[in-house]
Design a protein that fits this description.
The complex is a heterodimer.
Chain A (H helix, E strand, L loop, with lengths): L2 H25 L2 E7 L5 H10 L6 E5 L2 E6 L4 H8 L4 E7 L2 H6 L5 E2 L1 H4 L1 E8 L1 H8 L5 H18 L9 E5 L3 E7 L4 H9 L4 E5 L2 H14 L9 H14 L6 E9 L6 E10 L4 E2 L3 E8 L5 E7 L1 H10 L9 E5 L2 E4 L11 E5 L4 H15 L4 E9 L1 H30 L1 H23 L3 E2 L1 H30 L4 H33 L2 H32 L11
Helix pairs in contact in A: 1-14, 7-12, 13-14, 13-15, 14-15, 14-17, 15-16, 15-17, 16-17
Chain B lengths: L10 H21 L7 H4 L1 E7 L7 H7 L6 E5 L6 E7 L3 H5 L3 H16 L4 E8 L1 H29 L2 H25 L5 H30 L6 H33 L5 H36 L1
Antiparallel strand pairs in B: 1-3, 1-4, 2-3
Helix pairs in contact in B: 1-7, 6-7, 6-8, 7-8, 7-10, 8-9, 8-10, 9-10
Classes of the chains: A alpha+beta, B alpha+beta.
Amino acid sequence: MTKGMVYKLIFIISLIVFSVLLILPTVGTKQMEIKFSPQAVEENFEAVKNRFSSSDYEITVNDRIMIVSGRNITDAIMNEIRTYQGVVDAKLLKHWVEKVFLAKKINLGLDLQGGMHLVLQADFEGIQKKLGRELTEKDKSEIAQQALELLRNRIDKFGVSEPSIRPRGYEAIEIQLPGVKDPSGVKKAIGTTGSLEYRLVDDKYSALADNWFKQNYKDKKLPENYDEIKAIAEEISKAINLPDNLETLFFYKKDETTGAIIPERPIVLQKEVSLLGTDIQEATVDRDEYGQVVVLFKTTAEGAAKFAEATSEKNHGRKLAIVLDNKVRNAPNIKETIASGSGNISGGFTYEEAKTLARIIKEGALPVDLKIIEERTVGPSLGQDSIEAGIKAFIVGIIVITLFMIAYYKVGGVIASIGLALNFIFMVATLSLLGFTLTLPGIAGFLLTMGMAVDANVIIYERIKEEIKKGKSVRMSIIAGFDRAFWTIFDSNLTTILAAFILFQFGTGPIKGFAVTLFIGILSSMFVALYITRFVYEIISLNKKIKKLHI
Amino acid sequence: MEKSIDFIKYRFAAIAFSICLMIIFIAISATKGGLNYGIDFVGGYKLIVKFDDKNINEATIRQALSDFNPVVQQIGEPEKNEYIVSTKLASAAESVAGSTTSSKFDMLKSRLFEKFPTAKIESEESVGPAIGDYLKKSAWKLAIMAVIMMTLYLAFRFEFKYSVGAMTALLHDVILSVGFCGAMGIEIDIPVIAALLTLYGYSVNDTIVVFDRIRETNELKGKLIFSEVVNKAITQTLSRTIITALTTLFAVFALFFLGGEVLHNFATVLLFGLVIGTYSSIFIASPVVYWWDIWRANKK
């Protein structure tokens, strides 16, 4: 072996080891941590244990914390467990590989784990009627953004963790909710318009509430579920003896990376509503004379009087909270009386923050009705059936292909089959790195690529056979075979890659998964055939005396 | 030296066969009222329902839901008693009032529970007409884009005559595969579109392997005339063509028989397409290159 070949060997082996590590979180056992409340009784524990009674799972209990390990643990199951009585929280624990290599695991699509997929659109016609004018494209995209903001604000009402909300095109919004139990409840929560109010903040009690909160919840993570947050708010109200005319709510912040709206700290407001969302007419982002980003707003005619009252001298120095769906999203200071019906909110915002605030204010001014234009719900048992069918088809398909290759090409077939196995590992590893979601068409894509992946081997082997027939030595035939096959394989695969790329552009959920597997599968099969298999044959042809090749 | 098989000899028979098949498919599709678009593209609802009551069958479900004029079809093993119930948004009047879509869907579901208390909904889909229309347009747009991009790539990598041959074969595959869907009444939904695009990629892939060899043989042809070059190239790549088609077919067969209901149409379309795609690279694509070559020679 030459020095170059040794390096190649080291490279290939480390690549394989790394890939195997990367697929561990996906194919290995997963762990879920379930926290029980202090009030949970033995029956509550038993109910959860019964859910995982099959031999696929292992359970350990340590005081109020239960750890369930097993292969089949998904977000949908986690969300199901959260609805059990006595359970405070359930979350999937990260595999050590996920922590060390920042890899993700391959998640199951909603068609495999069960869940709800919705596509929503703002009701443009209704808004046109309210406004009494045609909407421009710019209005529409602005309204779609507003609707996105609204949904993020209420996602916790769905009682689902790991939700995904993202815009699809500029007109529609796609929501994925794994393991949702109550589709009609979700639809109801989405169908109602947001309620926006402006209420005065009580600084004295806010400070008390904040103190109590810091002492009791200092290091704890706040729950995502709105009902639990509400319970904490009530607990605080009781602890600080809040008078009847006041109410504790939570101040929410937008997480910059995920876009999720998360509770931050308690704040005490007057129950009396100073202004309604509809009292404001317009809100825009601008810069003031000092170059600071501000939100400009204009009130309606009736709004102007209410606003003058709310910002009158006695309230100077107080804060006016902007409350959307009972969540405080901002609380600017009142500096001066605004009687003219227009003013601005400043507060060292970034441009993005200001835009979000303007959207919230506009949401109150012009409530957006959301319409469900596409809905797909898959029950957990159908999901289970699908994944079983998919895996069965995959295994049977692979076995038949492997047997055929070995029967036809003998040793060459064995090498091709090992290549197939490597191809599989590389594919899963790449998809893990990308945090891919596996869907049923994705499984089909996997199997199909496996069927097509051997093509590269077939082209090479047939070529080598021909070269041997022409009377070349085995060594020369191998070299000529690989060299001549290279461009054929490259050209022919490129067209399939084009098809996959276009499918990806078109793709909605499951089909995108199919396109990605096809794309990655072709790339990795080319790498395996043209690099690794070639290396194996280079080693074989080191033996100069070799007279016969079993292909 | 191995003897070449004279594939070019069968060019007229092959073209006649393909044209007959196209006419048959198109005629059957026409009698069935054109392509059967699924709810993904026209809007509508689809339920997969399971019943405990063994007395329920397709006819009783259809009867109970007759106001909604649904398509009812049993799926899976008979003892599972599972059915697909779907209705499309047929009339334009319905399509206009988009917001009524979900309420009508709720009506259908409540009727179902009222008549069959044992019904269990395994999955439900509802697609509004606007999004269906949008999906349909983008599916067509992308299918056309795929063809254009492949043509461009071929024109870049090969001589023009090969591009013509490959695209004729692709067009042939598109017409036959879509015609097949129409004739068999296969519902065109998003997975079927995915299957169609995949097999176009496969078909062109297959053609390129043959063309690559024609080009190579042509460069060192010696005394061979072009038809002999083509025959020789096809013969030399024949075992590769067959083996790759077989391994891919094994994969598709596994999906067809074991992949479950969701993938059934997808696998059916692929199965037919693979056979057609393999056939077309030998019997359609190569003769076209041959004709184009003769035509160019005569012009000079």
